[in-house]
Design goal:
By secondary structure, this protein is of the alpha/beta class. The chain has 25 helices and 18 strands. It has three domains: 244 residues, no CATH class; 188 residues, 3-Layer(bba) Sandwich (FAD/NAD(P)-binding domain), CATH 3.50.50; 112 residues, no CATH class. The protein is globular.
């Protein structure tokens, strides 16, 4: 540790650090007890010792959750002599305890009855997948944040998804009406852009804009002179923002449509609008957090859908294309983790005891109830499936054999049906019987590495003094930051108080310099890079950003940070098809459609199968998968 690290507070023992990372992780991850991986950082009164939501440090794809799968996929390791651990076969085994896997279990039970015996196998130490709950108690009263999946875009949901939410008791309209959080402002505190010294030569905080979704080009142009850029670049950006002529006036409507779909936003700025590369660079990572792709990989129209400036220079056609979307959302204080909790509580009511019909956000979950032999539905954490095979009895009765590894021990269970609700990329390795065409199609979906980090600050006084609630950070790993407040439930209603402990969330994606790579190649390289980084690397990044951004307001990174939770997801956003990189497949011929076909007694349900990273997609694919198994 050097002097700069000490000034950032890197020596402060605020979290259980990633001590596991430097051990030989491949061999370690095959045998480390799951309880050690998930014991609470700070036990909460009334909560069993095993309570992953309070874990801080390196979360998401945490040490112990991926090593078995990597040993299988990268090294070809096989697990022989698996022992039979469950004395009776199941009706359904689900591999993956995220939203899609839990929904598949819920739909199966609905169609086949509450007596159905179901086992859900999950490789992480908590359920929910990217719908991750981060729970903080270090600053007094509980503060919640999400570690991945965020919101419910309910106006766009299918009847299947809406009916599931209704059956779970979710009132999306009420949640929307009570929502004060908007990723940007808190009361009089507004948005900003933070230019860091490491990238731009000096720390500059420009208040009054976030570059996306700003109300007027004139207001944004009025702030440009404060950007730490060359005078030529600033003049060019102001001229671009204030002009109203159509840059595509020479093209007819069809030519314009082709241009919007075949030109990257980065090239639009630099080639069509003539802006300096240093201007385009500012906008490069503005789409990282919600898309997982930088603007040099997105078409013009894709970037404009994300609220980036430029529509005012492209004529009436673009305004027509962008109009008409119902952008209402609903949110829980822990993001979509509450949906996962509702599904688990419905499947295993004993998990929340007396809180079975109370507020899901404040309900205390007893994780010891997840995998009880007397329960018809069991959820087995810290367990990685390594082989899933169609089989049959000597009498010809079809079934599925599933081998999984927990604490280094291979175990075998059987079931009438199986749903693979894990990432597409691992399915060909655990299901070697798949036809070659289907296996290749599954490998096409390369998930985008995403990261959501939550920092519990002792208070929000520095943010209040500076007048900011959010910041876009174009030079940092986490491109976006904002105060987490204004999301409520029945019993969780903490008012924003700058004198109290407050969570600031940072989110982004591991979008590396393109250097000739396609997005899919970038995602693979980003996955490797993300797993190579230690917790200390992420912590240093967060502390540096907070010190530079809030330091002028009195923030002290040594004293004012109470906890850090880094949710890294190398296999993050499901791969949706991009204008610039993916062909227009004929109906039924897209890789996700070929890859999700039922194979014997095995069906596939995940957001990859729908080629989009939204809760609705995960739910719809779970419903399809269960119906695919009907009659088999």
């Amino acid at each position: 540790m050097n002097e700069a690290d000490r000034k950032l507070g890197m020596g402060e023992a605020i979290t259980r650090r990633d001590f596991i990372h430097d051990i030989a992780v491949t061999s370690m991850g095959l045998s480390l007890p799951g309880l050690l991986m998930a014991c609470a950082d700070s036990p909460v009164p009334g909560v069993s010792e095993y309570y992953p939501p309070t874990r801080t440090g390196l979360r998401g794809s945490h040490p112990g959750s991926f090593e078995v799968a990597h040993a299988l996929a990268r090294n070809g390791k096989r697990w022989n002599n698996a022992s039979v651990t469950d004395d009776q076969p199941y009706d359904l085994v689900v591999v993956g305890g995220g939203i899609s896997g839990l929904a598949a279990a819920w739909f199966y039970r609905k169609l086949h009855g509450h007596d159905s015996r179901i086992l859900v196998i999950e490789n992480h130490d908590d359920f929910g997948g990217h719908a991750k709950r981060n729970e903080f108690h270090q600053g007094g009263d509980m503060r919640l944040a999400w570690g991945g999946a965020i919101e419910l875009e309910f106006p766009q949901y299918s009847d299947v998804a809406l009916n599931l939410l209704a059956d779970l008791g979710v009132d999306s309209t009420r949640l929307n009406q009570e929502l004060e959080f908007n990723f940007s402002t808190v009361g009089e505190l507004g948005s900003s852009v933070y230019f860091d010294a490491q990238t731009y030569g000096r720390d500059v905080l420009v208040r009054g804009t976030r570059l996306r979704y700003d109300p007027s080009m004139e207001e944004l142009a009025g702030l440009v002179d404060r950007f730490p850029l060359s005078e030529e670049a600033r003049s060019g950006l102001k001229a671009f923002l204030l002009a109203t002529d159509d840059l595509l006036a020479s093209l007819d409507q069809e030519e314009k449509k082709r241009y919007l779909r075949s030109t990257s936003y980065y090239d639009f700025l630099t080639r069509t609008a003539g802006l300096a590369p240093e201007i385009a660079q500012i906008f490069l990572h503005s789409t990282d957090g919600y898309w997982g792709v930088a603007t040099d990989g997105l078409s013009v129209i894709e970037a404009l859908y994300g609220g980036l400036p430029g529509a005012h220079r492209l004529g009436g056609l673009v305004r027509t294309l962008l109009a008409g979307l119902d952008e209402r959302i609903a949110m829980f204080p822990d993001g979509n983790a509450s949906i996962a909790r509702l599904l688990v509580r419905s499947l295993i009511p004993d998990v929340s005891g007396e809180d079975a019909r109370g507020d899901i956000v404040t309900a205390r979950f007893d994780y010891s109830k997840l995998d009880e032999s007397a329960s018809h539905v069991r959820l087995r954490l810290n367990s990685t499936a390594v082989e899933v095979l169609n089989s049959s009895t000597p009498g010809g009765e079809k079934h599925v054999v599933v081998i999984y590894v927990q604490n280094g021990q291979a175990s075998l269970v059987s079931a009438a049906h199986c749903v693979l609700a894990c990432n597409n990329s691992i399915i060909p390795f655990i299901c070697p019987q798949l036809p070659k065409e289907q296996a290749e199609a599954l490998q096409y979906q390369v998930r985008r590495p995403m990261i959501t980090s939550n920092v519990l600050m002792r208070n929000a006084r520095a943010a209040q003094k500076l007048g900011i609630a959010s910041a876009y950070c174009p030079g940092r790993l986490h491109a976006n930051a904002f105060l987490v407040t204004g999301v409520y439930s029945q019993r969780y209603r903490p008012a924003f108080d700058p004198d109290q402990a407050t969570v600031m969330q940072f989110f982004g994606a591991m979008t590396l310099p393109r250097e000739g790579m396609t997005p899919r190649e970038q995602h693979r390289a980003g996955q490797v890079k993300m797993l190579e980084m230690k917790f200390e690397d992420y912590e240093r990044e967060l502390r540096s950003t907070l010190a530079g951004m809030l330091g002028p307001g009195g923030f002290d990174p040594v004293k004012d940070i109470l906890a850090i939770t880094v949710n890294r997801w190398p296999h993050g956003y499901a791969y949706d098809y991009l204008d610039l990189w993916d062909p227009q497949w004929a109906p039924g011929m897209a890789p996700n459609e070929i890859g999700r076909q039922r194979f014997g007694q095995i069906a596939i349900a995940n957001s990859d199968a729908g080629a989009d990273a939204y809760l609705q997609v995960a739910v719809d694919q779970a419903w399809r998968a269960i119906n695919d198994l009907a009659g088999t």
